[in-house]
Amino acid sequence: MLNVSLLELLDRFYALIWPLLRIGAFLTFSSLFSLRAINLRIRVLLGLVLTVFVSMQIDIPRIDPVTVQGLEVLFQQIFIGFAMGMVMQIATAAVVVAGQAVSASMGLSMANMIDPTLGNVPVIAGLFTTLSTLVFMSTGGHLIVFGILLESFHQFPIGASFWSQALLGKMISWSSFMFLAGLLISLPVVITLLFVNIGLGFVSRSAPSLNIFSVGFPAMVISGFAILWLATPSIIERINWTWVRTFDQLRSLMLN
């Protein structure tokens, strides 16, 4: 009786380990769910809850993890979670690139803060990252992402091959979105500050005795914060568009 119970327990463990690998890799490599602000215990508990839920929705084959086939399936599950996490990492990197561009235009490149995921980033990039997280949660992005994660188990069942040349092309082409989205998010503030800088250039030419550094730097900072406050609704809409494109890319990745 004890041997039967142990065998049943071992079968259930093998049934849970495969979806746990994919879900755990996704939670580890994704940009928002891997924040240090989220306790490790919370991430482990979230991964276990999602694993139990997914295991009740799909058919899990019996594969011995200590065989060659088991090792191949193990790396496949980790790679699928890694690929989905990297798609979200690029979206977050786009927001950071936008913040760096705005900080450079305002003259705040040296004013850095410690970000738990990206290290030293300008303060405006930290502000944009916070806005991005709020937009993601307020639009139900976590539910959409978990739905796509569940769909991935139907599109790419455990044991099915995931790697292909088309997937590699999608990942490489998607990396360029980081610069496109970063440019679009920062464009209103950067363009306006460019005209402010041109105006300061005319002032310095008309009044050569004026110390441009003592006047220009405070003017750029004050103008930058005023423009940033006025452009916040537009920035939020562009961040929302960035996440919508990210969700579309995740679905496209799963339909490869």
Give a brief outline of the structure:
The protein is mainly α and 256 residues long.
3D architecture notes:
The structure is a single chain. The chain has 256 residues and is mainly α. It is 77% helix and 3% strand. The protein contains 9 helices and 2 strands; from the N terminus they run αααββαααααα. The protein has a two-stranded antiparallel sheet with strand order 1-2. Helix 5 (141-155) runs parallel beside helix 9 (232-254), helix 7 crosses helix 8 (212-230) and helix 7 (177-206) packs antiparallel against helix 9.
Beta-strand fraction estimate: under 5%
What is the 3D form?
elongated
Q: Helical segment tally?
A: 9
Helix content: over 70%
Low-confidence stretches are none
Summarize the topology.
Blueprint: H1 2-29, H2 40-55, H3 68-106, E1 112-115, E2 119-122, H4 123-138, H5 141-155, H6 165-175, H7 177-206, H8 212-230, H9 232-254
